[in-house]
Design a protein that fits this description.
mainly alpha; 2 domains; 3 helices
Length: 106
């Protein structure tokens, strides 16, 4: 079975479910859920895929592997090692530098 056939079947089932849900919410006069359902119906079916690119440029589809890959990626990104110590020579402030008043100006 092709991916398009599976996607089309899921799309039809999703839309039929949303139509049934709208009918139920309309009969029960549940206005909030009715409008949310209409909004979801307008968006249509959106295929959700769980695929991430692995460290070796392979594709990972298992949820635990995806979480592990994300954890490794962000730990490498935020835990930077080997950054040298930089000393700041000038102090930068957001306030403009104003010279002090002299005795004659006062």
């Amino acid at each position: 079975m092709k991916l398009e056939d599976i996607s089309g079947t899921k799309r039809k089932a999703y839309l039929q479910y949303k139509i049934d849900e709208l009918g139920t919410n309309g009969k029960l006069k549940n206005i909030r859920n009715l409008y949310r359902g209409i909004s979801d119906y307008k968006k249509g079916y959106q295929l959700i895929t769980n695929i991430a690119k692995g460290e070796k440029s392979d594709f990972v589809t298992d949820c635990n592997s995806i979480l592990a890959r994300c954890r490794n990626h962000f730990s490498q990104l935020f835990n930077v090692h080997g950054v040298g110590y930089f000393r700041q020579r000038e102090i930068h402030t957001a306030e403009p530098l104003v010279r002090e008043s002299s005795v004659f100006e006062v």
